[in-house]
Amino acid sequence: MSGLRDYSVVYFGNDWFAENRTSSHHIARRLGKLVPVLYIETPGSRSPQKSARDLRKLWRKLARALAPPQKVGEQFYVATIPQIPFRKLPAIDRLNRWLGAWLARRAMRKIGFGQRISWFVVPHPGPLAKRLGERLTVYYCIDDYASYPGMDPVAIQTLDDDLTRKADVVFVAPRALVEPKRKLNSNVHFSPHGVDFELFSQAGDPATEPAEEASGLRRPVIGYFGTVGEFMDFDLLAYLVESRPEWTFLFVGLIAADVSRLRRHANVIFAGPRPYETLPRWAAAFDVAIYAHQVNRQTKHSNPLKLREYLATGKPVVSVVTPETATFGDVVYLADNPVAYLAAIERALREDSPELRRCRMAAVEGTSWDARFAETIAVVEEMLARGDSR
Question: Considering the domain 4-194+368-386 in this protein, what is its CATH number?
Answer without folding.
Answer: 3.40.50.2000
